[in-house]
Structure formats: structure tokens, C-alpha cells
Amino acid sequence: MKAKLLLVTAIASCVGLFAAGAASGAFVAIYRNALETTAQRSEVLKVSGKSCSRGGGKTSLQITVGKLTEECAYRTPVIGANLEIAATGRILTVAPTSVLRKAFLGLQLRVGGGNKLELRVFPAQKKVQLVKITEAGLTYLAIKKNVKAVQEPTKPNVLRLRIVEAAGEEVGTCKIGGYLGGEQVIEASDEACAEASGEMTALSAGAPNNGSGVIAGFEAIVVRTPVRF
Q1: 201-225: per-residue pLDDT in tens?
Q2: In the chain, which end has fewer C-beta atoms inside a 10 angstrom radius, N or C?
Q3: What domains are there in the chain, each with its CATH number?
């Protein structure tokens, strides 16, 4: 698959999409990457993390979090503000075992300049978070515990993160939805989502405070944009 940069103008019909909510708007795929070959995996590049390495399984991209590193993120070629990103991820191994409980898989939108909006799924805790990270620090937009749809660490979790920004009088407010296996499991409304002004889309893995030893595998990335009606 030939790598190329996709510039997305996703302002289409935001009023209707916002009113319907982040769960019901129509989206169309603009990028797919099965991550099955070296060429496909080469399209996904490091965007953040002090000590991170990447490799390839037979059908996946593997991300390893190194020493003194909380999280590693790798971006797709797609940029844009109002998008949806989906991928299948699993925690392959964690050493030491004390890190396993807090290890997470993540999807990121609006990445850039140290800012991002992120879905975090903690397989060992069956917990899901929506967080916003800016120069001011980390803000928890929503937290859900005991989420039955979360699969245990070694099993695949099908993650999806969606952002739809309002238009008109509510410009700057976003509806953010997090999904697992097609089921919406968490949502948030952020009136200051413009603080995350980046446009990159990314996969991530790590653990709060110290993710050293986390190894995650990702498969089948899809990035979608809203459809104008």
C-alpha cells in the first residue's frame, strides 16, 4: 500500500450529525490498513513517547513501551479534525506484572502540539476512559468501570473513537464517543475541545506514570469521516 498524506476537510453537515449524537452520524471510510505487511506497517509512524519501539507480527503492528516512558503513540497518514478511528488491539505481554493491571490500549484524535483526545481501554481492569491532554495537563472527560465489553488483555479488543464538532452557536463543542466491538460504551461532551487543535490520528499503548514493559499488538486500522447529506 503506497503511503500518502490524506488531508480531510470534515465540516460536512455537522449540525445534523451533532444533533443526532456521536453514535448515530453516518461515516465513510477514507483509509484502511490491515497492518499485515512490512509496507503497510511502514505507513504508521511514531508521533510521541520517549522510549518506544515497533515491530511486526504476522498480521499486526507491535508497539513496545520502553524505560521511563508512560505511553507510545504511532500516527496514521490521515489528518483532520472531525474523524473516527478504529483498530483491533490487544496487550501481548507486560513485564513486570505489576504494570499489567494498569496497562491500556488507546486511540487518539486531534493529535499535535502536545494535545490530543484519547480513548483508553484497560483490559485487566475492564475500565474505559475518554481523556483530553493539552499544555495544561490531563483532563478526564468520562470514566466507565466494570465494562463487560472489555476483553481480557490477551484477547482482541475492537476499539473505535469518534469526534463530531457542533456548528452554529455551539461551535467549539464536541461529542466524543468510544466504542468496543460495535457497542458505544462511553461518551462525553466537551465545550472546549478546540483546545486539542492537532489533526493527526494515532494508535497508542502504555500505562499511567510508567508503562515500561508494555507490548501491544494492533490490527486493521480504519479511519472514517462524516458524510454530507
Answers
A1: 999 999 999 999 999 999 999 999 9
A2: C
A3: 27-226 (2.60.120.560)
